[in-house]
Specification:
- Helices cover about 35% and strands about 25% of the residues.
- By secondary structure, the protein is an alpha+beta fold.
- The strands form four sheets. It has a seven-stranded mixed beta sheet with strand order 3-2-10-11-12-9-13.
- Strand 6 and strand 7 form a beta hairpin.
- The radius of gyration is 21 Å and the shape is globular.
- Bound molecules: flavin-adenine dinucleotide.
- The site of flavin-adenine dinucleotide has 24 residues, from strand 5, strand 9, strand 13 and helix 5.
């Protein structure tokens, strides 16, 4: 199965609900995002890697790594046995609590936002629209969502801190959420965390980290699949260059860090500033912003300029069109705008 065959839905817009339940619909009528079956998608990626000559060690756990004589020695536990591997480059794609980053002193995320999702069957609503729910009561520090996924939907949220599952239970009781899930039945629980922060480096001698391990998820939406895949292309390019030059020094591998921070990293940095501004808002300020945005001219601008992977683009356009929004920006975002 190819990665493309794992697509189970297409999203053409969003319904956004304010804390009081006021609804704004942003629907450009064109595909803005795709939904994949994550388990199938991961399988398709592994199959592609195997086709290209990779070896897989199913159920193996990397237990430790150190640098020895210009190489990395890696200990891997599998089937109650520990095996020792020696490699020129170790790439840690081991998620938000990356062991590889810890072992090689690569800075960890400033914060991990707890998240929880329930995959449900029987969720109502337009399958082409994601639903986003904002409210300090049930999703403090982030927001909640319903993401249609084929004939099911993922109903979830992230929060700044605390018990994400308890907050999700609260969110499911909100009338604006309840109307979509009254008939719904749970299928699967998904728990995780979103890394927040921008790493000073994503490499060391003989080592690179990528994906959530390098905080490459978007602080605005929590989405990390597109950004991780993009950054992994930079990572692979540098790994090939390093092998060609037989140079695995941090100075050489810095090319990877420079490549991703100089491209998608610029957006990720802005996303952190947007996130910080957003989390400072009180519910009544969110209502005021809804009041400003709920205007046909502004909604058209969002539809035309909005890009789920580059939210800052529409942000700047909105500020030019509606300077009233400036007062809701935090210090970080103001400083960024001043430098532009
Ligand atoms: C609730 C929630 C919902 C999300 N929804 C979306 C979404 O709709 N769209 C989107 O784009 N992103 C979403 N994300 C973010 C997305 O899941 C991550 O950004 C993405 O999975 C990062 O991929 P990764 O490969 O870096 O890490 P992961 O997907 O976490 O993979 C890391 C892998 O490394 C393995 N591992 C860890 N340590 C070791 C070890 N020592 N030895 C061996 N293996 C190890 C883990 O078992 C895991 O399989 C969501 C996140 C959360 C928390």
């Amino acid at each position: 199965m190819s990665c493309k065959e794992t697509i189970i839905g297409e999203i053409h817009g969003a319904e956004i609900f304010s804390p009081s339940g006021r609804r704004i619909v942003l629907d450009g009528g064109e595909t803005e995002a795709i939904v994949v079956d994550r388990a199938m998608f991961d399988r398709a990626i592994v199959t592609e890697a195997l086709r290209a000559g990779a070896h897989s060690f199913l159920g193996a756990q990397a237990a430790g790594a150190t640098r020895v004589d210009g190489h990395v020695e890696l200990l891997v536990n599998q089937d109650e046995e520990t095996r020792r591997f020696r490699c020129k480059i170790l790439i840690g794609a081991d998620g938000v609590r990356s062991d590889v980053a810890k072992w090689f002193n690569i800075l960890r995320p400033r914060k991990i936002l707890p998240g929880f999702e329930i995959e449900m069957y029987g969720v109502d609503g337009d399958p082409g629209l994601v639903k986003l729910f904002v409210g300090q009561d049930f999703a403090p520090g982030f927001f909640g969502w319903i993401i249609p996924s084929g004939d099911t939907a993922r109903v979830g949220l992230c929060v700044g801190s605390g018990n994400a599952y308890a907050y999700l239970e609260k969110m499911l009781e909100q009338p604006m959420v309840k109307r979509f899930v009254t008939r719904a039945q749970p299928i699967l629980y998904i728990a995780g965390g979103i890394p927040l922060g921008f790493p000073k480096r994503s490499h060391a001698d003989n080592v690179m980290v990528v994906g959530d391990a390098a905080c490459q998820a978007k602080a605005t939406s929590g989405g990390g699949i597109f950004t991780s895949l993009l950054c992994s292309t930079f990572c692979a390019t540098t790994a090939i260059e390093a092998l060609e030059r037989d140079d695995f020094s941090a100075r050489m591998l810095h090319r990877y860090h420079k490549a991703w921070t100089g491209s998608i990293g610029k957006e990720l940095r802005k996303d952190i500033a947007i996130h910080e501004s957003f989390t400072r808002l009180k519910d009544h300020e969110v209502e005021e912003i809804f009041e400003v945005l709920d205007n046909p001219k502004i909604l058209r601008l969002i539809r035309e300029r909005g890009d789920i992977d580059f939210p800052s683009k529409v942000g700047w356009a909105l500020l030019r069109e509606e300077p009233r929004l400036l007062k809701y920006l935090g210090k970080g975002l103001r400083a960024m705008i001043a430098r532009m």
